[in-house]
Amino acid sequence: MRIDLHIHTNRSKCSSMPVKDLIKIAARCGLDGIAITDHNTIKAWKEAKNLLRRLDSSLIFIRGEEISSKDGHILALGIQNVIKRNMSAEETIEKIHEQGGIAIFAHPFDYFRQHTTEEKLRGLEIDGIEVFNSRCILGYSNSKAKRLAAKMRVAQVAGSDAHFSGEVGNAYTIFKDAHSEADVIKAIKKCQTIPAGKNSPIFVHLETWLTKIKKRL
Ligand SMILES: [Zn+2]
Ligand SMILES: [Zn+2]
Questions:
Q1: What separation in Å is there between the alpha carbon of 39 and the centre of ligand 2?
Q2: pLDDT band for position 60 (50/70/90)?
Q3: Is 155 helix (H, G, I), strand (E, B) or coil?
């Protein structure tokens, strides 16, 4: 099963992708599941769930959020309610676990975006590290994350970090046997994940920046 665990919709300030486009493209590019991980909001969940039900889609939907902690971006998967931004990484992870979710550190060593240090990451109770993010410009940031995840024996996951339709499915995590959100969470806890994917073209960063400006106007 191929599941893209890091996707934004137009509920994020820097994305213009409607939920309906995301679902259409995810099915078309052969994904078996998607996690919607908007920045500090879960507003797209309801629309996604309703649409998947209406379409009788077999796509696995994972409730996610990308939380801006003071120490970097943390993906929360399988949570129930929104988790607020600007807490320390420790506090953010604690809130995720309280809700029965799992915490994955996103693009930890991407020096062009919010990032952290190896020392900081080693002290955190994370369940996984994003070892491949399609938007990391330098291969070094992904390979460093992969090496650390192996050393820390936490799950290695991948996601496209798509903000636009052309990016969906550029990276995904492979699960041997996962048919629901609960299965995905369980597999990540057991480190039964295989990261895979390719880089997105560099112009997507410019597009993100322009979208942010347009939305502010
Ligand atoms: Zn991020
Ligand atoms: Zn993201």
A1: 7
A2: very high
A3: strand
Residue 192, domain CATH: 3.20.20.140
How many Cβ atoms sit within 10 Å of the Cβ of residue 114? 16
pLDDT in tens, 117-127: 999 999 999 99
Are 174 and 1 spatial neighbours (Cβ–Cβ below 8 Å)? yes
The whole-number pLDDT of residue 217 equals 76
User: How many separate domains does the chain show?
Assistant: 1
For residue 38, which ligand has an atom nearest its CA?
2
pTM > 0.85: yes or no: yes
5 SS3 class: strand
List the shell of residues around ion ligand 1, using CB closer than 5 Å: 73, 106
Q: How far is the CA of 142 from the centre of ligand 1 (A)?
A: 13
pLDDT of 28 strictly over 90: yes
Find the mean pLDDT for residues 33-55. Answer: 97
DSSP collapsed to 3 states, 6-53: EECCCCCCCCCCCHHHHHHHHHHCCCCEEEECCECCCCHHHHHHHHHH
Question: Which residues on neighbouring strands pair with residue 103, listed in sequence order?
Answer: 76
13-50 burial, b for 16+ CB within 10 Å, e for fewer?
ebbbbbbeebbbbbbeeebbbbbbbbbbbbebbebbee
204 pLDDT higher than 90: no
The CA distance from 130 to 142, in Å, is 8
Nearest ligand for residue 14 CA: 2
Q: Domain containing 191: what range?
A: 2-216
